Amino acid sequence: MLRKDLRRGFLSIVAGLLLWEILARLLLENELLIPPPSSVVRSFWKLASTGQLNRHFAATVLEFTYGFAAACVVGIALGYLMGMYKWFDEWMDPWIATLYSIPIITVVPLIIIWFGLGMLSKVIVVFKITAVEIILNTAAGIKTIDPVWLEVSKSLRLSRWETTYKIRLPAALPYIVTGMRLGVGRALLGVIIAELLASNAGLGYLLRDASETWDSPKLFVTVVLLAAMGIVSFTLIKKGEQKLAPWRETAEW
Amino acid sequence: MLELYKKNSPAIHKLLSIMCGLAVWHVLATVIVADSSFLVSPLAVAAKSYEMLFQTAELYPHLLASSSIFFYGYLLSIAAGVPLGFLMALSPAVRDYVHPWMTTLYTTPRIAFAPVLLLWLGIGAGAKVAIVFLGCVFPILINSYYGMRVVNREFVELARSFRLTRLALFWKILLPASVPFILSGLRLALGRGLTGVAIAEWFGATEGLGYLIFFAGQTLNVPVLFVGVTAFALLGILGFEILRKVEEIATPWRKKLQT
Amino acid sequence: MAIPILELRNLGREVAGRGAEPFVIFNGINLTVRDGEFVSIVGPSGCGKTTLLRVINGLLSPSAGQIFVDGKEQNGADGELLMGFVFQGAALLPWRTSLNNVLLGLEGRKKNTPDAQAIARKYLDLVGLSGFEQHYPHELSGGMQQRVNLARALAVDPKILLMDEPFASLDAQTRSFMQLELLRIWSQTRKTVIFVTHMISEAILLSDRVVVLSHRPGRIRSEFPVPLPRPRDMEIKSDRRFVELENTVWKLIEEEVKAAGGFAKL
After folding, report:
1. Any contact of C with A, at least 3 CB pairs below 8 A?
2. How far apart are CA C248 and CA A21, in angstroms?
3. pTM, entire model
4. ipTM of this predicted structure
């Protein structure tokens, strides 16, 4: 017996897909505008069996992983320093704030000019987006630590290093994870945009290819794949958030 | 002198940081890279901005086009997102049926919808506004929903203890309690909306800041590229400042809380 | 005998439990309150005293029994406004000034509209907050917030005032001052009050009668009239009768707690 909200959700999805199929088949009869789910599935099989899908998918995931990992390391380190040292925070602030307030995608053309059409430019895009989020959130987490905890640490005569990894970093962890979560969503968008603008592999490339050749079923396959990727990464992050900071409630969405 | 420094040291540090950064950028561009199709100095960007603003005035149509697309998309998002968010908060059935579609649309990278929307709505203003709308509507919707869901339980009991009508409960308790949440939704939506404008204008547009940047990127016109990016950043900052003012006016009781 | 202002007949409330058995919070509560009486309800943690107060007001519905006010049976929160509720956490709306918070219950009640402002000011004055009408809740101290909370409940001129541990979150000193203030305000308004608290001395100091609830499921374990003259002040706490009553009530509650499995289970 499923929970009521899950049952309704499932019902809603099934009804929506059915409506889409009927609408596409009976009313529009135009594969170009709205291909029915069945031809989207067929197109998916074709792409998957020729190995194309695998190649593009792997490219995007790889670019994403490299950029994200680098951003975590650099972001936490810089954020920690900004949270700890006021002068460093003041020197960094104007530049981080500038990077943050510029819509990422407007700098993508520039990054492509600088780092080329290959994988590196996409890794940089992911890195830039995620790092800014993690830096800001880590710094906020370090700054807003409850002074009582630091007094606890002092009263127990913990060393500086112990204070860092037993008190400060765990205290900032929920913030850091929030930064990562915000970064994932935006970075996914960023990497797709970069691929769309200039590349020869990746889901963004597939998207452009499909829309330029007016291959609607393929276009929809890509859209559905991107949706799935978004949902999967979001769920993973949420699970990870619960694992890393179980003492905190996670966002409902 | 030392006194003055101590008083304003954060501002001084920031100013120094900006000046040093600009100097490094200038040296990097003119001496080390010295290739204007790769990097140009901040002075060149300033000169180009001046030219495009006051001499050729070619920036204005782009600014106008981008702003109006943004404006319509943003307003539509508020008009649709706030009521739907409230409805979802007040009716579990609506929430359960809408939720899976919303999660799907929200977590999908928006760029994926751009070609589809263009396919359906053509390369007119409609598709562009729709792309901006898709970017803005979810943070607004989710925050409206959430704001109304987390209203202090005692406030609702308070309304019931005074035998307020359901309508009064909505207007006097639930709505004002969700205003700060809606405002933070609006703030989130601002950045996403601007990104939406840029995405929308990359696909078959002939004007707008997004088009300007895209075209400059294709033709390796780095100075114009920088002007476009700067203009976008300034639009964003302007938007945030306006929202801050709105927040001050709409929620005067929070003013002292923040300082 | 005159009709009592409040009468509870066999009142009970239960909610769905973990298993098939419902979870009984309290049951079989019979209580009669005279007009103008100050009754305190005390009991061990988790005896359902706060829930009882919410059921009396109609915020929660009873699963058994009836509530009569002035001889008329009450049916939930849709009924007439006869009771004022003073919340534990003050529950002041942060977007409203003190005055507007007090006005909340008066708004939309036609009989009061012309001079609602004057009424609100009068009650703010009564609780000692004239001059703070335009202050927002966050600009007020905890004690002041509770004063506004009280003024808001009084302003609708309820027949009965229900107070849910209103001083629980205040520091000990402020709490004592607020108890004295409540004594003063009560002597001026002579409202019927049902006051829930876990602090025995507070209950005795304020009330005409102290009702002791048992551990879950909550029932009325005992009732004690308070044999102390009014007006009262803090010195009365050293009165022999005060101390004796406090000891008696404490022993009862201690027994209840032991029966429930000891202090550590609280």
Report:
1. no
2. 77
3. 0.81
4. 0.82
